[in-house]
Specification:
single chain; eight-stranded parallel beta barrel; six-stranded antiparallel barrel; alpha/beta
Length: about 500
């Protein structure tokens, strides 16, 4: 070889090595990337659909916080409504129900409630209980906004509503008053209503307030102790996973005495997870899944009643939770990342508020560690999947989290097996490519599952569908996390999928 050729080879090798080194450091030089992870959902943030029996011991369990109800007068055949959605009288003049005719329960005990209306005022007696007309004018509830829902023994949706003055509500044409002292359940009784439950929530607030302060601490402790153990980390590690994403709620920062109705103990469980991860050579992503005020109104956001209320006024408190988590775990060798917020929903969470929070949350983490990744969840709803890319390019060791489900949209309902699989290889691959850039943040498919809207699918169909997602989401530069590890619905449960031969990560 001539000296000239030799120099060319050396120079080419240098350039290639420099490119590889640049890419390596851009992605953090972390041998565990990209992660193959699973979400430990329904452990430290409750989601009742994943383990419904958790709620089985709650009295009146169909009337938990956030339950949306409608009341039709059996005499008038008209629905109670907050006129104009709230701010004035409650009336009984609608023949069909919608938002103004729907009330959200705040549970005081198993039979006593506050009722929140469409515009977020509370159902109550006029003049703070000095009158008997029913109005919806106050933004916070007191005694005059407290009502007992009395249910008929043999027809639980036939109800009478007792006000704080000891009298029952009665429906009159265009008017509702709390001045009925009679009894009975016949249709002509103006105090009898047919109750329809429109929607329920089954989250952390619902379970802890449902069981109440005497029972909730033990119920939750028993759940935390049994749902995830060191044996589960051993199972995951031996089956090809190297990380877990652990949803936590904002109340964890106040453990062991969080604000009521939340109960202490989840912090100790998270501490245990770090020990188990270290014992089994795994990494942890701490995911702030539920924030004060609720970022999306879903039960897994810790919401009391399903209203989405997180905004600028909540940023300082939410950053304080991140600061607490970073201070506690920054130096733990098992910490891979802290995710600042799960699934903020547009347009309720504005991009400006989210960027302001993400920058403050990022700075809070960086006070304690320069190594841990900071994960920024994309907004759900009407939002551009690339809207955080320019913002994130100015930050170090940052990840964009996207969630891909072949569910929750009518577009999936009529897809056959092959169309579902083709959608992953084509559309999802394109979606992921759009947020995976060479000079920006890493990409992370933080939630996906092998369940779909296709009924009657065979085991082989599920295997092919899962493999397609593993193939495509494996291109994410930070990695992916299956939802979830345990679930009463089998195909949502990675443990069940592995044990029954639907997914094999050791060969992927």
């Amino acid at each position: 070889m001539s000296s000239y050729s030799y120099v060319k080879c050396v120079w080419a090798f240098y350039l290639f090595s420099s490119w590889v080194t640049t890419l390596w450091f851009a992605q953090g030089a972390d041998p565990y990337l990209p992660v193959k992870a699973v979400n430990l959902g329904n452990w430290l943030v409750t989601e009742g659909w994943m383990k419904p029996e958790l709620f089985a011991g709650i009295p009146n369990q169909d009337l938990l916080d956030g339950t949306q109800v409608q009341f039709m007068s059996t005499k008038l055949q008209k629905y109670l409504a907050a006129e104009n959605g709230g701010g004035t009288d409650v009336v009984a003049n609608r023949t069909s129900p919608s938002g103004w005719e729907t009330f959200r329960l705040w549970r005081i005990n198993e039979s006593t409630f506050n009722l929140r209306v469409f515009n977020k005022q509370f159902f109550g007696l006029e003049n703070q209980g000095k009158g008997n007309k029913v109005v919806a004018v106050l933004n916070s509830p007191g005694n005059s906004e407290t009502f007992q829902i009395v249910r008929k023994n043999d027809d639980r949706n036939r109800v009478r509503i007792k006000a704080s003055n000891g009298l029952f509500l009665q429906a009159k044409p265009g008017l509702v008053t709390a001045d009925y002292g009679g009894s009975g359940w016949d249709d002509n009784n103006p105090s009898v209503f047919q109750m329809k439950i429109v929607r329920t929530l089954q989250g952390e607030y619902q379970i802890t307030n449902g069981y109440g302060p005497d029972r909730a601490p033990q119920v939750m402790q028993d759940h935390w102790n049994a749902y995830i153990t060191n044996e589960d980390f051993r199972f995951l590690s031996s089956n090809g996973l190297n990380a877990v994403r652990i949803p936590v709620g904002w109340w964890i920062a106040s453990d062991p005495t969080p604000p009521k109705p939340f109960v202490g103990g989840s912090l100790k469980a998270l501490d245990n997870a770090f020990t188990w991860a270290q014992n089994n050579g795994m990494k942890i992503i701490v995911d702030l899944h539920a924030v004060q005020g609720s970022q999306n109104g879903n039960d897994h956001s810790g919401s009391r009643d399903g209203f989405q209320e997180w905004g600028d006024s909540n940023i300082q408190d939410t950053v304080a939770v991140i600061d607490f988590l970073a201070a506690r775990y920054a130096n733990n060798p098992s910490l891979a990342a802290i995710e600042l917020m799960n699934e903020p929903l547009a347009p309720g969470v504005t991009l400006n508020d989210l960027k302001k929070y993400y920058k403050a949350g990022y700075d809070a983490v960086r006070k304690y560690t320069s190594n841990a990744y900071v994960i920024l969840s994309n907004r759900l709803g009407p939002a551009d999947s690339k809207e955080l890319l320019d913002f994130a390019r100015g930050l170090n060791r940052v990840v964009i989290d996207v969630h891909y489900y072949s569910l929750f949209s009518d577009m999936f309902n009529n897809m056959n097996v092959q169309q579902n699989i083709d959608f992953i290889y084509n559309q999802r691959a394109s979606d992921l490519s759009a947020v995976t850039t060479s000079n920006g943040p890493l990409s992370f498919v933080g939630e996906w599952t092998a369940e779909w809207a296709k009924s009657g699918a065979s085991k082989e169909d599920y295997q092919r569908f899962a493999k397609a997602q593993i193939d495509v989401y494996g291109r994410a530069t930070f990695g992916w996390a299956y939802w979830a590890y345990r679930c009463a619905q089998n195909h949502w449960s990675l443990k069940w999928m592995i044990e029954n031969g639907y997914i094999n990560l050791l060969s992927s």
